[in-house]
Write a structure and sequence with these properties.
Layout lengths: L3 E2 L4 E3 L20 H10 L5 H4 L13 H14 L3 E3 L5 E8 L8 E11 L8 E2 L6 H14 L1 E2 L3 E5 L5 H9 L6 E4 L5 E7 L2 H11 L4 E5 L1 H18 L10 E8 L6 E3 L2 E4 L7 H8 L3 E7 L5 H15 L5 E6 L4 E7 L3 H5 L5 H4 L2 H13 L4 H4 L5 E4 L2 H9 L5 E5 L4 H9 L10 E3 L9 E2 L10
Parallel strand pairs: 6-11, 8-12
Antiparallel strand pairs: 1-5, 2-3, 4-5, 4-10, 5-12, 7-21, 8-11, 9-10, 13-20, 14-18, 14-19, 15-17, 16-17, 16-19
Length: 451
Amino acid sequence: MAIIAPFRGLTYNLDSRKDFARLVTPPYDVISEEDQRHYYRQSPYNIIRLILGRKKTGDSDWDNQYTRAADYFSRWRSAGILTRADQPCIYFTSLTYVPGDGNAQRTRWGFIALVRIEDQDSRVILPHERTFSTHKDDRLKLMRACNAQFSQIFALYEDLDHTVLNLFREAAGRTPHIAFQFRDGTKHQMWILADRALFRAVANAMREKPIIIADGHHRYETARNFRDLMRARYGLRPKNRSYEFVMTYLSNMHDEGLSILPSHRLIRMGWPFHPERFLEEAARWFDIEEIPFTSSSLSRNCIDLKTRLEGAGRLNTAIGFYCHKANQWALFSLRPNSWEQSGSDLHPAVRRLDVVVLSRFILQKCLGFSRQEMDNEEIFHYESSIEKAIQHVQSGKYEMTFLLNPTRIEQVVEIARNRLIMPRKSTYFYPKVLTGLVLNKIDPHETIQAF
């Protein structure tokens, strides 16, 4: 049973701060060092100072990026830069964007509320991707220093009739409380709703729906670890203390605005690479078609590549390959009996994932990468754009790229419901939910009213 609750969110002062595009950022884990510098320059109150503060030479246990975030957070609240709602609210949002896949502009709807944290064996909140302790340790240090959740979990629920969305549309007025265009061209609106009848109706509609984590697995597990620390500190309490909940952005998996982009793999090799030998080895498992570039225009070649990859992937696992100094690319199609020959006992739902085929047959069997090496971000980079992936390889920054079709939403649901886990970076839900629209202050003595 999913427990959804309103909360007294912190927002930038709506009366004095109108420059929202200069205050918010994407989630911390997609922000590069260059982006971090940009957001620092945007405004002295940009949320970057809280979620991804600069490290300094001489940082210590009492003066570091986490303690400085806590200091900023305290001073911004004292100065009225951030203000807390007088009563519990749910935050209804729209996000309008161009998906970048040749399709027209679309809008994704969602709402931000608290969701009660579930234990790991629960069937209520379902993960689908693997997490890493380094990221969780980092986020836990920040949460402990600030006693707050700055970024939402991005989660999905199933609602074929759009009942929940219709409830929000009926309750929201025409004029949003916040509206702005972000630097990437995405357009954002948010309505702050304090209607108890709405809360009750939404809670009832969501009660029997399992929730699938789309993005923010590390943040969810960090919130659960923080909850366990608070339970140890304050003893056994009723399950309505503020630390029992996590701030979550929820969107209908059947929303027409939901997009999943591919996560192409770029590889920086640490040893000599021989393309001919690699293709010969890969031919044990794949039918391989080598396709010359047909145009001097990279964009046109990439459009052709994407079309061919999509077509080949409708009935089979298909993977594109391009390496440095090549004037052609290769299309790999998995042979029907490859899994049987490999002797793998993986669940059928996992076998159908292109990222798993890439990992097992190409990266491990053909290129010899260990699982530990595949988690090394110095070796592997992820890119959602085919054209950018090809450009990075042509420049020599990476030795090669493997190009994938996006994971389908039905595959995400199948993996989660079977309590299976995908490799990291198997999905790229686009666009990301911005950080800074609303924050959640955690007072361990505060209780949350669920409906």
